Amino acid sequence: MKKFRNTLLILMALVMILSAFACKKTDDHVGANGSSSGNANENTEANENNKEENNNDAPEAIDTEKENETDGISDLYKLVEKDLAKEVKEDNKAFMIPLGAGYDEETLKAVLTRLKEVKEKYSYDKDLEELMMLVKADDGNTYLVAQEFYLLVPKYDDADISLKELELSEEGELEAVPNEALDGKIVHGPTLIVQNISDIAPNGEITIKDKAGEVKFSPYVSLKDGELMLDDGAVDASEVLNFDDKADDYDEKLFEKIYSYMPKF
Hints:
This protein has helices spanning about 1-55, 65-70, 75-85, 105-120, 250-260; strands at about 95-100, 130-135, 135-140, 140-145, 150-155, 160-170, 175, 190-195, 205-210, 215, 220, 230, 235. It has about 260 residues and is of the alpha+beta class. It is globular, with a radius of gyration of 41 Å. Residues about 30-40 and about 60-70 have low confidence and may be disordered.
């Protein structure tokens, strides 16, 4: 009996020792977990900081809206703009290059010689898509009612370009009037426009419509200094060339086409 009691006491002592040891291991484990949790938090913060640094190092996002504004700009427009001393606004729609007046055979040849000089200066070897000329139809004949020639260079080659005839009303207001040769006609790209400018009443209204909007303007002469005025729709680009007074180098086919519309007196 005494031997059994001693054995029981020994077993109880062992249980107490094992229990104490187990408690110590649990505390160590908790402490270890606490330390791991702290490290995890530190790692999380480090990762967040790394993300911020990486974001800061990343290239800025491309402004696609601004990029799209430059897409499709005419190469000829860019070259003319580069040659101008004056500032050109971003919302400008076109350049107008005055080529002079053509009212008979010789003056028309001079106008078309200047046109060829423009094309050669900028290595523009494309044919002009169409003409926009103020003409009238009468008794089966179509004839010019304008003498001033301009090369219109739109900012965007796919811009819609149209021309309307204007007349001065009895009330002294410029009004669009029907013109079968022009109404509904739309062209694109650099265009030779023939209309009259005047310090009193220009007889043509140009409309340019592109992806950035639409403008309408009627070129006229300033009463102050005789300069070409174009409102805000386009910029006078006459400074890009110094024309020679010659009339011997021109597109003969284009000459014949335009000359056929000129009234013969």
